[in-house]
Amino acid sequence: MLDRLKELCLLNGASGDEALVREFICANIRADEVFTDNLGNLIVFKKGKKTPKRKIMFAAHMDEVGFMITDADEDGFLSFGAVGGINPAVALGRGVTLESGVSGVIGTKAIHQQSADERKKIPDFGELYIDVGASTREDAERLAPRGSYAYFDADFFEFGDGFIKGKAIDDRAGCLIMMDMINGEPEYDAWYAFTVQEEVGTRGARAAAFTVAPDIAVVLETTTACDVAGVSGSRRVCELGKGAVVSFMDRSTVYDRGLYSLAFETAKANGIPVQTKTLVAGGNDSGAIHVSAGGVRTCAISVPCRYLHSPSCVIKMSDFEAVKALADLMLSAVGEL
């Protein structure tokens, strides 16, 4: 699992540029029906041992946060904007890889050249640039035309007691779990939506839910864990090492109460560590799915993750395994509804 998660995370695929991720998934699943819609969602059907009374869909998004080139100046430095919610603080000084394969560095004025006021604040994206070693506007535009992408150049490794660091764990973790479900021997028929453009407004999920028209949806995600120094109580949201996170509400969804309870009951009955969030925060593809068509009963099961939307997402392998185990059991549980 770890090797395959690494492969998925090292692929570049920002919102609107998910082709490499989609191709990898297609090449590594065994399904009964596979198609790509006009927006780029990969929609998969897997026949199970039984046909449920209600149509079931699992969903996970393929895209990651990244950057888009907007301009180049006369000295060959690139202007850019964020694709998805990225704090400029995690971008400054980072290495990036352009869509063309060229490497670069995100920079700004050195501290020695900043005013006292400038030193007190984090520069926004308008004050940052990407240095690709070009010396003219023409050289820079050849390497990175307007509208092309740039990605965090980040490695993937294990550390500590089962911790994993990498870019794009949000949400290649969910994608890998769905791939394993498809390649297994599921108890019930189900649809699987590998969605696009979640990071810029859950756009792919809206289209996928309309196409599949499920009665019940289970979204597999990562979610913000704030179990770090200086944060206590409810503001920790959820914690690494305490298992799968089942949400009751976030900023875009009030989750189906029956499915919320079912997920907890299923986890506890099978010895799977499970927790919920202690703060209403964030959102995911559920926000678009649960209001699709006549409404969809929706549940979200997430891997707790530190430092989301950065080149250093951190999860714990035991939590990932808990989400995988619970997802498998939830297919059987909702299939019986």
Summarize it.
This protein has 337 residues and is α+β, with helices and mostly antiparallel strands.
Could you outline the blueprint of secondary structure elements for this entry?
Blueprint (H helix, E strand, L loop, with lengths): L1 H9 L8 H9 L5 E4 L5 E5 L9 E6 L4 E7 L4 E7 L11 E4 L4 E5 L8 H4 L9 E3 L5 H7 L5 E4 L4 E3 L3 E4 L2 H15 L6 E6 L7 H10 L3 E9 L19 E3 L10 H13 L4 E2 L10 H4 L7 E9 L7 E4 H19 L2
Parallel strand pairs: 3-12, 3-13, 13-16, 14-15
Antiparallel strand pairs: 1-2, 2-12, 4-5, 4-9, 5-8, 6-7, 6-9, 7-8, 10-11, 11-17, 14-16
Helix pairs in contact: 1-5, 5-9, 7-9
Percent helix: 25-40%
Shape field: globular
Task: Describe the strand arrangement of the main beta sheet, using strand numbers.
Answer: 1-2-12-3-13-16-14-15
Number of helices: 9
Protein structure class:
alpha+beta
